[in-house]
Specification:
- By secondary structure, the protein is of the alpha+beta class.
- It folds into three domains: 1-121, Orthogonal Bundle (Arc Repressor Mutant, subunit A), CATH 1.10.10; 123-270, Beta-Lactamase (2-Layer Sandwich), CATH 3.30.450.130; 273-327, no CATH class.
- It has helices at residues 4-11, 16-24, 26-33, 75-91, 93-100, 105-121, 124-131, 138-146, 152-160, 305-312, and strands at 37-40, 56-59, 64-67, 167-173, 179-185, 217-225, 231-240, 244-250, 273-278, 281-286, 313-315, 322-324.
- The strands form four sheets. It has a five-stranded antiparallel beta sheet with strand order 5-4-8-7-6, with helices on one face. It has a three-stranded mixed beta sheet with strand order 1-3-2, covered by helices on one side.
- Helix 1 packs across helix 6, helix 4 crosses helix 6 and helix 6 (105-121) packs across helix 9 (152-160).
- The radius of gyration is 23 Å and the shape is globular.
Length: 337
Amino acid sequence: MRLGPWIERAVKILDPAVQEQFVLDPIDALTTGMNLTVRAVDSLSSSRGDGGFCDGMSFLEDGVILYAPTSNSRRQNFTLAHELGHWIVEQDQGLFDWIADQADPSALLETVCDHIAQRLLLPDALTSEVVGTDLVRAHHVQDLFDNSQASYQACAIAISRRIRGLGAVVLVDRFDGQVAHASIHPEPDDGWPVVYPWRGQVLQDAHAFRGIAAGATFTRRITWPDSWGRTADFYADAIADDRRVIAVLAGHDIWNVDPGYMIQPREFDARPLLTIYCCGQSRTFRGYPCPTCGRGFCPLCRSCQCDRAAETEGSCTGCFMLFQRHLLVDGLCEGCR
C-alpha cells in the first residue's frame, strides 16, 4: 500500500495559489480562496469513526467547516488542514473509491486526511533537510517541530513517510498514557498490519513508554497491544519531554538493537478479495462474506445481498409469505386480497 502517489494526486486538486495562501493564512485560504464557511466552536463533542474526539468537523455538502480554536497553538492549523483533506477526498471519486475498497476504510480515510494536512503545512524539502541520509529517529520529529511552524502531528506524519518498511510514529501523553496521535506507514507489499497503534488507545502503566523520564531516550524492542488484546512486536526509538513521548516504531530491526532475535511473523490483513456491485458501483475489497448469501458486505452501506433483498421485500399480513413490496396492497398479497 503506497500512500505517497495518492497524497500527491489529492493535493494537486487545489489551485497552487490556494496552497500558498493556506501556508500563510489557512482560514483566509478556506474562506476567500475556496468560498467555504469556517466557524470556531469552543467545544466539539462529536467523534469520527476512528476513535477519540476530533478538533474539527466538516459538513461538506453545505460547505461548512467547524473547528475547536486553540489560540497560540499550531494544532489549529493542522485541524483546518485535516478538514480540508476531507473536502479534497469528496472531490476525487477515484481516491474516494480506493479508500472505500481497502480493509479498514475509516482508519485509512483519517490517515489520508492527516497526510494531506502534513503535505499542505510542511514542505518535503524541509523534512529532507532535517532527516538527511540518516535512519529515521524520534528526535527528527522534535527537530522538525523546532525548525518549522507545523504542529507535532504534522511533523510526525512527515517523519513517518521516511520509515523504511512497516512502521509508525506515535505521540503519547505522559500523564495518562493515551495515544494522542499515530501516523502509520503500511508495509509497501503486504499493506496494513492486523495490530497497529491508533489514537485514543490508553497504554497500561507497565508499558515501556509509561516509564520514560522527561529528557530520557531509548531504542529497544517493545510489545504493542491493540484495543482488542492482540499484540505484536515492534522496534522503537523514543524520546520524552515533560508532556509527551515521541516514538518511531519499525516492523524490522532497522537500528540493529537486537541482533540475532527473530521477530515473530507478523499478521497482515489477509481476508478474501471480494467483488460486489452496490451503491451504484462495482467494488473490489478484502472482507469476510455473509455466511447466508456468500456475498460481501458493501464498505459504504454495510449491506450484503441478504440485507438488500430484505429492503425490497415485505411480509403479507394475511399469509405471512414474503413478497416484493410493490406486490403488496394494504399489506396483503394478491392471493389474500
